[in-house]
């Protein structure tokens, strides 16, 4: 199969579902790591096609969702400074901070702009030499290369008014933390195909060995996901635990070396706070010694108080698969996409947003 439509073929989907039902003898719990996969699963009802003994748990692979409240508060602190143009991806605008969100801040007059790329922020910096331009750089290994490139481009242009507020995370430490949690029930992982397009499959080989769990690199179309689930279940039924690449049309073992070089040139690994997971060792990327001049935290001496604990949002439990969105007491009542209490209801890849969009009627019916 080579073309997108072929990965949405209902007849082929039925065939794979049939094979899965024939294959399964045990009770198995799988986590799809990426929020894009979650949306595809819920949208197409893939979880409802599986045997009752197979459970899918939704993972933390939504970059907007895992950005901690403290970083949102830092972005808000920057946005309220008159000299600053704060730029970011559109999904970030409505993520609640401790007391505010960027859209409300913009409505009160702050210069907050949503962009498709940090390279557009570099352009804005070049066009506005009298202003400071900060790009709120969030995301996984997929966004890190272009965020790195923006720094190199600003440097090449001699811009001294461009910086990044970095909240970059990397996937393998999150998988390891979830798998090693004392109450973990997950027996296999569907890894995020687009992250592996950048980083390759090799990163997951030692992880699968250490965790003794299958990791299947999986895409986002319905057949990609069904094939990923089938491969993971085959391993579980055979008591195997290896990395398998079900997204070979885009992923190879080495990944995109140019993109990896960009990441290595500009960033260094660091401990990182994740919403829902807490601080994970060596799970983030920060600007390395050579590019400190582009670090907004240093440039503006940011000193924002730690975010208060005890928010009403249960996103932490959703992001670690401890509850499903409809089990949150605020789902669909106090918390909706128009009036979100948490990031997982705002983001295009958030699990709460997926259930609200595709399963709300069922949730209301079941209450
Ligand atoms: S439904 Fe809303 S309050 Fe509940 S976990 Fe999701 S985002 Fe948070």
Automatic annotation (TrEMBL):
Coiled coil: 226-253
Coiled coil in keyword set: yes
InterPro entries hit by this protein: Hyd_form_HypD, HypD_1, HypD_2_sf
Annotated keywords: Coiled coil, Iron, Metal-binding
Keyword hit for Hydrolase: no
Pfam families assigned to the protein according to its UniProt record, in alphabetical order: HypD
Similarity field: Belongs to the HypD family.
NCBIfam families xref list: hypD (TIGR00075)
Protein name (record): Hydrogenase maturation factor
Organism: Congregibacter variabilis
Gene behind this protein: hypD
């Amino acid at each position: 199969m080579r073309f997108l439509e072929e990965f949405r073929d209902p007849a082929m989907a039925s065939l794979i579902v049939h094979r899965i039902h024939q294959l399964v003898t045990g009770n198995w719990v799988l986590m799809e790591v990426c929020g894009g996969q979650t949306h595809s699963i819920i949208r197409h009802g893939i979880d409802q096609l599986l045997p009752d003994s197979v459970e899918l748990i939704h993972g933390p692979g939504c970059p907007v969702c895992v950005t901690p409240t403290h970083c949102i508060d830092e972005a808000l602190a920057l946005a309220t400074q008159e000299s600053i143009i704060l730029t970011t991806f559109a999904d970030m605008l409505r993520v609640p901070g401790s007391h505010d969100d960027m859209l409300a801040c913009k409505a009160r007059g702050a210069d907050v702009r949503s962009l498709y790329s940090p390279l557009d922020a570099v352009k804005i910096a070049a066009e506005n030499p009298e202003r400071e331009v900060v790009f709120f750089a969030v995301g996984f290994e997929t966004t890190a290369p272009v965020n790195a490139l923006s720094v190199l481009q600003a440097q090449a242009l001699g811009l001294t008014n461009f910086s990044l507020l970095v909240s970059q995370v990397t996937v393998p430490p999150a998988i390891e933390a979830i798998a090693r949690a004392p109450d973990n029930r997950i027996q296999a992982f569907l890894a995020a195909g687009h992250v592996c397009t950048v980083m390759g499959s090799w990163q997951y080989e030692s992880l699968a060995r250490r965790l003794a769990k299958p990791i299947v690199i999986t895409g986002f179309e319905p057949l990609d996901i069904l094939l990923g689930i089938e491969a993971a279940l085959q391993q579980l039924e055979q008591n195997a635990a290896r990395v398998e690449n079900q997204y070979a049309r885009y992923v190879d073992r080495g990944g995109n070396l140019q993109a990896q070089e960009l990441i290595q040139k500009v960033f260094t690994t660091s401990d990182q706070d994740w919403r829902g997971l807490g601080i994970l060792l060596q799970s983030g990327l920060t600007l390395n010694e050579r590019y400190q001049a582009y670090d907004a935290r240093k440039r503006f001496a940011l000193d924002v108080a730690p975010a208060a604990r005890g928010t009403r949002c249960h996103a932490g439990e959703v992001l670690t698969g401890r509850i499903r969105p409809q089990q949150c007491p605020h789902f669909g009542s106090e918390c909706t996409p128009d009036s979100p209490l948490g990031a997982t209801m705002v983001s295009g890849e958030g699990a709460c947003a997926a259930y609200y969009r595709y399963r709300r009627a069922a949730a209301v019916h079941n209450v």
